[in-house]
Structures are given as structure tokens and as C-alpha cells.
Amino acid sequence: MDFQTQHRKPVSEQRRLMLLWRKQSAVDALTDLDHEHEIFGFTKGQFSLLDLMKAVLTKTGPADVSLSTWTASKQEAIELTAMKGAGTIRTMRWLVDLTFVRRDPEAAHAIRQAFGVEAIRVANVHSKFVLFSNDAWKLVLRTSMNLNMNPRTEDFTIAHDPTLFDFISAMLAKIWAHQPGSLDKHRPYDVHKIFRELT
User: Fold this and answer.
1) Count of domains for the chain
2) Which residues contact 153 (CB under 8 A, 6 or more apart)?
């Protein structure tokens, strides 16, 4: 790729470590979210990435969101589109695995109805992260979680980190500019080919 593929920075001394192995919720996990600290936590899967996203947006207020995930279900897509309707999410981009649209065309349709026909891009995706931005925040949430509930050990890291935010945003902008929004209707071979050509 002809753009930077690594982001390097010193290890932060302002890091909060959380072991959320009781009944703590996503809201509990983000009680101390601020502009100065990075939060890293382990869970037992008692809340999902969708729960974390809702908790973040309660803290930040309405924001623009970018999501990378392997998959999403129709129910999760409906919940997020409802948040768009309520004004909690202003805009949203979805980077999903190339199999997503074929596995759940109803979810993809709901996303496009709420967020626009250009909202989805597909690739060989397994990375899971969410960006949140408004006038006060540039939050980066990195996680092992999918949107759905999964009763297994999961981890997450979240921080107001404008430099990392801009680094990831530049990668997403490259994908959106390089790939036509209709690519998810093509054969997997074509998706793989365009993904390999991304520079």
C-alpha cells in the first residue's frame, strides 16, 4: 500500500486497565472515559460491541461513526439505523467482510436505506474497530468483539486519540475512493482482485 500501514507512538502512562468479570455493563466500562486516558478492558462477553457503541454515544452525544466488523445481523443493523433516525448517529460507514451482503441481504438493505447507498464497502475483513467523531471527540475503539453478544472472553481498548483516528480514517478514505459501492454484488474473485490492487 502506498500509504502508511503502521501507526507508532510511545506507550501511554495514562492507561486504565479493567477486569470486567462480574456483572459490569458497557456503561460501567466507560464511566471514566475522558480525553486524557486510554481504557483497556477484558470482559466475559456480558456485553457486545453494539452495547459499547451505545455507551460511547451516550458519553459523546451525536457523532459520525465508522465501523469495521466481520459481520452484522439484521437486528443489529436495525438498532443502528434506529439510532440514525433518533439523531444519535449522524453518519455511518460500514467496512464488512465480502460475504456479509450475501449472508444477510436484509441487513445490508437496512443499512443502505438509513445511511445511504455509499455506506458499505467490502473486503477480506476481520478487523474490528469503531471511530466516533464530533466537535469534541475523536475516539478510537479497538476490540475483539463483533456487534452481537458472545459469551466468551473479549477485549477492548478505547481512547480519544486524534492522531490514530486520522491514521485509520485515511485508510478508510482510500478504500472508499478505490472501491465502487456496488462491488459487493460482484463475484468474490472480483472483490479479491480489487482488494489486492489496493495501494
Assistant:
1) 1
2) 42, 43, 44, 45
Centre a 10 Å sphere on the Cβ of residue 9 and count the other Cβ atoms it contains. 9
The one-letter code for the residue type at 136 is: A
Read off the pLDDT of residues 187-198 as tens digits, 9 standing for 90 and up: 555 555 655 665
> Is 52 within the bounds of a domain?
yes
Residue type, 118: E
Instruction: Provide φ and ψ at 142, rounded to 5°.
Output: -115, 140
Cα torsion for 96, 48, 108, 81, to the nearest 10°? -130
For the segment 7-31, what is each residue's pLDDT rounded down to a tens digit? Answer: 566 656 667 777 776 778 899 999 9
H or E segment and range at residue 54: helix 49-60
Cell of 63: 457523532
The whole domain housing 129 covers 44-197
Q: Is residue 34 part of a domain?
A: no
Pairing of strands 63-69, 129-133: antiparallel
Q: How far is CA 172 from the centre of its chain?
A: 11
Query: Taking residues 110-134, what's their average pLDDT?
Result: 90
Chain position carrying cell 449472508: 103
Instruction: Say what the pTM is.
Output: 0.85
Angstrom distance (rounded) from CA 89 to CA 44: 27
Give a yes or no: residue 24 inside a domain: no
Residue 139 belongs to some domain of the structure: yes
